[in-house]
Design a protein that fits this description.
It is built from 14 helices and two strands. It is mainly α. β1, α4 and β2 form a beta-alpha-beta unit.
């Protein structure tokens, strides 16, 4: 079931708004609500392998999950549960999940699927969409992908799969801003991906990444709720995430785990964060 755009916006308001319009918190909530009306995540950032291990899904299981970027929902399918229900406040996320599901059944090969959603950076994807996917999409999802967007320069939304889809969406653009900010301080985040061991990854974090959190601009940004909306952190979650700690220390700890908590041979999240794509030619780690 897909709600109309109007109904979806009403439900989003009900989920986000907790304070008066003219209060500081109320204004922040409404800004977050506006951001969440569009595409936020092109990739989900929770580990489906941990979920699969913990849930021990079987053929009699019915899974209810947040749709988000669709990675986890598709990963759960590898366990062959009886049913998966994906829900989301964002119509864009529902459309992305349905796009992936139709593509999985209609594209001719794994290579074609990887070109579309792994590399996500080829004009051939748009031809494949028009010829093989669009005719089998539900009307709401088809209308979303064929609609035009200012974020796409007036092009159809589906065109982002010809221009590295992982650089799009609220989080994709936020990561791009992070790369630019690091560059201004002389740090090329992509260099982490050249590390040949976890020790080299840790050295890069401690010498290049950790010092960034002491920069005045970064200290200001991490203390500002508004600047973190690009991570998809809603107003109500900010305090819960920070707890009694400075948000700067929380984010530093999270980045440390992302950068050097796991080998790059297994950590596709690091490839997306530091390289803004998966490894070339599917040579690196991928979601299950």
């Amino acid at each position: 079931m897909v709600y109309s755009r109007v109904e979806s916006h009403v439900r989003l308001k009900q989920a986000v708004r907790r304070h008066r319009v003219l209060s500081r918190e109320g204004l922040l909530e409404r800004l977050f609500e506006r951001l969440f009306r569009g595409l936020v995540y092109t990739q989900i950032w929770e580990d489906p392998e941990i979920d699969l291990e913990a849930l021990a899904l079987g053929p009699d299981c019915h899974v209810v999950a947040i749709a988000s970027g669709g990675c986890n929902v598709l990963s759960y399918l590898t366990a062959d549960p009886a049913e998966i229900t994906a829900v989301d406040l964002s119509l864009a996320h529902v459309a992305l999940n349905r796009l992936k599901l139709v593509a999985a059944s209609r594209l001719p090969s794994w290579e074609a699927f990887y070109r579309f959603f792994g590399a996500a950076d080829d004009e051939a994807n748009i031809e494949a969409y028009d010829r093989l996917i669009a005719p089998h999409l539900d009307p709401q999802s088809r209308a979303y992908w064929q609609g035009r967007s200012l974020h796409q320069g007036g092009r159809r939304r589906i065109s982002m799969f010809a221009r590295n889809a992982y650089r799009h969406g609220v989080l994709g653009r936020f990561i791009g801003v992070g790369h630019v900010a690091a560059r201004l301080y002389g740090v090329d985040l992509r260099q982490l991906l050249s590390a040949r061991s976890i020790e080299e990854q840790r050295h890069f974090f401690e010498t290049m990444l950790a010092p960034l959190f002491d920069k005045p601009a970064v200290r200001w940004a991490t203390a500002n709720r508004l600047s973190l909306y690009g991570l998809g952190i809603p107003p109500a979650q900010y305090e819960a995430l920070a707890g009694d700690s400075d948000m700067r220390h929380v984010l530093r700890s999270r980045l440390e785990r992302l950068a050097c908590g796991f080998s790059l041979e297994d950590n596709y999240f690091a490839w997306q964060a530091f390289g803004r794509s998966y490894a070339d030619d599917a040579s690196g780690p991928l979601p299950p």
